[in-house]
Amino acid sequence: MKMYRNIILSVALYGCETWYLTLKEGCRLRLFDNRVLRRLFGSKRDEVTGEWRKPHNEEFTDLYSSPNICRVIKSRRMRWAGHVECMWDSSVVYRVLVEKSEGKSPLGRPWSRGEDNIMMDLQEARCESMD
User: Fold this and answer.
1) Who contacts 11 (Cβ-Cβ below 8 Å, separation ≥6)?
2) Residue 130 maps to a domain
3) Distance of alpha carbon 38 from alpha carbon 88, whole angstroms
4) Domain assignment present for 129
5) Among 13, 78, 82, 125, which residue's Cβ finds the most Cβ atoms within 10 Å?
6) Which residues pair with 76 in a beta bridge?
7) Can you tell me whether residue 45 is helix, strand or coil?
8) In angstroms, what CA-CA distances link 39 with 3, 32, 60?
9) How far is Cα 23 from Cα 33, in angstroms, rounded to an integer?
């Protein structure tokens, strides 16, 4: 488990502070996480029938008490936004997070800013009154 936390998750979540996750990408990350955990824990013997079977996804929460990989990404993104907020307004990183992108916007849904994604993460964490 130490190898999983220190090596696999570190490589898989490198730079996740700047990712803007869609539902499809979130599902793929959870699938990856469950697949790796299934390989680490291996098969499990069923107590009733005595047969070997693959553990269910819900059983991983009992075996490995780690938050959902998407929640880890959101918490890291909020922590990174706190660091960026302390930077000067003229900082490039601050401007990328807060300002709107330049250029002609495509038809349909408007581009999302980094600030919009941080606000959605805060609302999910029930910190709606925070500015």
Assistant:
1) none
2) no
3) 45
4) no
5) 78
6) none
7) strand
8) 13, 11, 11
9) 15
